[in-house]
Amino acid sequence: MTVDPRIAAITARIVERSKPSRELYLHRVRNAAAKGVHRSVLGCGNLAHGFAVCSPSEKVALSGDTVPNLGIITSYNDMLSAHQPFETYPAMIREAAAEAGGIAQVAGGVPAMCDGVTQGQPGMELSLFSRDLIAMAAGIGLSHNMFDSTVYLGVCDKIVPGLMIAAMTFGHLPAVFIPAGPMTTGLPNDEKARVRQLYAEGKIGRDELLDAESKSYHGPGTCTFYGTANSNQMVMEIMGFHMPGASFINPGTPLRDALTREATKRALAITALGNEFTPAGEMIDERSIVNGVIGLHATGGSTNHTMHLVAMARAAGIMLTWQDISELSDIIPLLARVYPNGLADVNHFHAAGGIGYLIGQLLKNGMIHEDVRTVFGHGLQAYAIDVKLGENGTVARERAPDVSHDPKVLATIDKPFQATGGLKMLTGNLGKAVIKISAVKPERHIIEAPAKIFHDQASLNDAFKEGKLEGDFVAVVRFQGPKANGMPELHKLTTVLGILQDRGQMVALITDGRMSGASGKVPSAIHMTPEAKDGGPISRIREGDIIRLDATTGKINVLVSDAELDAREPAEADLSGNEFGMGRELFAPFRAMTGAAEHGASVFFH
Predict the structure, then answer these.
(1) Helices 457-465 and 492-502, interaxial angle, to 10°?
(2) Contact status, residue 475 vs residue 510, Cβ threshold 8 Å
(3) What is the C-alpha to C-alpha distance for residues 495 and 111, in angstroms, rounded to an integer?
(4) What distance in Å separates the CA atoms of residue 268 and residue 148, rounded to the nearest whole number?
(5) Which residue from 54, 322, 429, 443 has the highest number of Cβ atoms inside 10 Å of its Cβ?
(6) What distance in Å separates the CA atoms of residue 307 and residue 123, rounded to the nearest whole number?
(7) Are 486 and 587 contacting, i.e. CB atoms less than 8 angstroms apart?
(8) What is the CATH number of domain 423-575?
(9) Residues of each domain in the chain carrying CATH 3.50.30.80
(10) DSSP reduced 3-state for 223
(11) Which residues contact 357 (CB under 8 A, 6 or more apart)?
(12) Phi, psi of 488 (to 5 degrees)
């Protein structure tokens, strides 16, 4: 089935807008691919350094140009549950590469920080910038020019987007992304949220809270709620960078290992030395990016991807905008209910049919581009599958079912959970923002209330404890943008605002900071740009100003005249406390150089 004309029109608009940058990008990719790796003509000292620790047979192989060498970029560390499984992957990849007649080397490691650990802590102010640092670190590993293909081992929030930026920068090389999968289901996410609220209200103590948190986050793999980490996995699969069905298989299982070995062999099969050369920068195109956005809307995915997808696209010369994302949201129905947009976790999502079922539904109804290149071959139909363990430890696939195994978790396009996607852009006299509405009840899509102003989330939480947050209000938490303090997630606000909403108050949030993939039931206009540090209109809001947030029309305004708003002096904030400690001083150049949220909040793209 051909793609919906509305989707085709948006895609064509992106193609037209991207022509100058995309043509320049492809020219560079093709020039780099034409030069090849040519290890045999490296200086002898260069090559000797590159394979010094290899076996004699590997050295002989790498001395020529006929044996492919696979570069591994890994985000392994053994503190973070999502990345700990990668400890054993290099040995597995080297073994699988040898079976396929190739060689594999760890080209480099990249940092992987956990927003779950740093929530509300100083380290969170490094989080968003770690994405660009990861891209740079991967670039250093690949700069040795020893490799014919690459595999990227990464899962969580900033890691996969950073690795994707690196993969596009080295777009003349094939790139296969290998996930580690989610941890098994622990304490249900709604129960965890309930315990958090009880703790915030002072009804239970820290021991009870820690016990609940430990039962939620209890083993290897990603957290099981549908935040940025699991949104990353969906996006990479629907854009064709995973092997079909790879995203949500639990760590330490035979199928997980079989998929890793298969991905290794596929990465070697698509080098320039074979007949299926698939350089990553040419494989991806505007249709692939649109498919990623469509997947995000259909699943109610992470708000962070309104920045990450923009930055990832720009790394390939593709100019995606918030307007494109918002218009696609008006077309794509919400087909998944996964926490915080439902009670199920990602294991339930996978068991209900998962990404294979979702892609099948979208393809059947012309809601996604099928005619795209992937690391698996040509066409997205190959991803509308159910993956299983086959004979002798291989991977077996069969067509995904046409019927959801759990209609409460995965719906059909004929009867979606809601007619539109989960993410929208808001515009008005305060600038631009994004809002995730998939978990917000319809009666809260429009809120008009006076502003209460804060310059950090701790101040709002203190006001809550002191009983000062009475009545209806819009919390304005500003000076939280990338230039101010690195744009930390303000996830500590979720519980407090949720409690007030449950008490019957009409509350909303406006911020130039982030709320992460866990953005939930409180209407939150986030990523406001221009940010307060840049003198954006959010810095001119005064205590008590009436603010109207209308997610139905995509509007956000402070209800004062343009003349009055323009005449006001921007507020100022003392940000000196954000400049030092926990490594924040090392990131001063990033804060100074970063672009706006709508352009990806990146030091690379403005």
Answers:
(1) 40
(2) yes
(3) 29
(4) 8
(5) 322
(6) 20
(7) yes
(8) 3.50.30.80
(9) 423-575
(10) coil
(11) 384, 386, 400, 401, 404, 410
(12) -70, 155
Q: Please report, as a single letter, which amino acid is at residue 322.
A: W
Amino acid present at 367: M
- Give tens-digit pLDDT for 157-181: 999 999 999 999 999 999 999 999 9
448: enclosing H helix or E strand: strand 446-454
Can you read off the two tokens belonging to residue 270?
A: 């698509």
Burial class of residue 64 (count of CB atoms within 10 Å of its CB; 0-12, 13-18, 19+): exposed
What average pLDDT does the structure give for the chain?
Answer: 94
* The pLDDT of residue 519: 60
The token pair at 330 is 């008006």
**CA 70: distance to chain centroid?**
25
CB 126 within 8 A of CB 113: yes
Backbone angles phi and psi of 157, in degrees to 5: -50, -60
Question: Is the CB of residue 129 less than 8 Å from the CB of residue 155?
Answer: no
Residue 561: which region, alpha, beta or left (left: phi > 0; alpha: psi -120 to 50)? Answer: beta
Sheet with 149-153, strands from edge to edge, namely 103-109, 69-74, 149-153, 175-178
Q: Which two tokens stand for residue 12?
A: 């064509």
* Confidence (pTM): 0.95
Helix, strand or coil for residue 242?
A: coil
**Residue 517's pLDDT is what?**
52
Is the N-terminal amide bond of 340 cis, ω within 30° of 0?
A: yes
Whether 518 has a pLDDT exceeding 60, the answer reads: no
Q: How many CB atoms lie within 10 A of CB 351?
A: 16
| Residue 54 assigned as binding residue | no
pLDDT on residue 41: 65
Beta carbons within 8 Å of 33's beta carbon, 6+ residues apart: 172, 272, 277, 279
Task: Give the integer Cα–Cα distance in Å for 306 and 292.
Answer: 11
Phi-psi region of 417 (alpha: psi -120 to 50; beta: other; left: phi over 0): alpha
CB neighbours of residue 381 within 10 Å: 15
What is the token pair recorded at 381? 């139909």
Q: How far apart are CA 386 and CA 388, in angstroms?
A: 7
Residue 321 near residue 10, CB atoms below 8 Å: no
pLDDT tens string 229-281: 999 999 999 999 999 999 999 999 999 999 999 999 999 999 999 999 999 99
Residue written as token pair 């081992």: 153
Distance CA 514, CA 438 (A): 17
Residue given tokens 């973070």 in the structure block? 80
